[in-house]
Design brief:
Helix content: 10-25%
Radius of gyration: 18 Å
Shape: globular
Structural class: alpha+beta
Largest sheet: 8 strands, mixed
Order of helices and strands: EEEEHEEHEEHHEEEEH
Number of strands: 12
Distance between the termini: 25 Å
Number of helices: 5
Strand content: 25-35%
């Protein structure tokens, strides 16, 4: 796989899944559509092979990494989906396959020290070991506390996004305006404008990042 280009901003390594201000949301009029799976939302000018995945309609956003300034508080919908689908590092965008044990490293904020547990849902893609060490030193949120785990399997669960009312097509925002998590088998999936992929993690083993990196170097 070709090494994705790496971008830096004010000395900081900008994660692969971070959107840039030049990657503007693209226009799309949401309309009622009827397909093989029944009724749901769609775009008036929908291109099914681009705009729809997992039976959900997806937010349209330009993909021009490096254009403008990075929005470090947000996530680019299509690069997040790509990272989850192919198990790419969320920071450098390279594959996290290749460990002898065939597991993947997941890193999450955990201010109270709670570990990653089996069956846990997450929209946070995996990370390679060098980028994990870099992230805990550079990310303000992770500096407040984090947890890491090697995971046997990340199973597709659903999406997170904005559910639309079937009668009015008006957006129904989740608590505090946050995206709503919708499973693949939910009837709401066809009424959701997806912003990211959600997986469940299985076979989770909590690890110490520094020890994990040291073991790899000395092995």
């Amino acid at each position: 796989m070709r090494q994705p280009r790496q971008f830096y901003w004010q000395g900081m390594h900008v994660p692969f899944i971070t959107p840039w201000t030049g990657e503007q949301a693209q226009p799309g009029t949401v309309v009622l559509r009827t397909g093989r799976g029944g009724q749901g939302i769609g775009y008036a000018d929908e291109l099914s092979h681009i705009d729809r995945r997992y039976d959900a309609l997806w937010i349209r956003r330009a993909a021009v990494r490096g254009l403008g300034k990075p929005d470090l508080a947000a996530v680019h919908p299509h690069r997040q989906r790509q990272a989850m689908s192919h198990m790419l590092c969320q920071v450098c965008g390279t594959s996290t396959f290749g460990r002898p044990d065939e597991r993947h490293l997941f890193l999450m904020r955990s201010a109270d020290g709670r570990p990653i547990t089996d069956g846990e849902q997450t929209a946070t893609p995996p990370v390679c070991e060098p980028c994990a060490i870099e992230s805990v030193g550079a990310c303000p949120h992770l500096r407040k506390g984090y947890t890491a785990a090697l995971v046997d399997r990340a199973q597709m669960w659903g999406v997170a996004g904005i559910v639309h009312d079937p009668d009015t097509l008006a957006p129904v925002h989740g608590p505090e305006g946050r995206p709503t998590a919708v499973s693949l088998d939910s009837p709401l999936i066809r009424w959701t404008l997806a912003a990211c992929t959600v997986v469940t993690l299985h076979g989770c083993t909590t690890v110490d990042l520094e020890r994990l990196t040291t073991q790899k170097v000395t092995a």
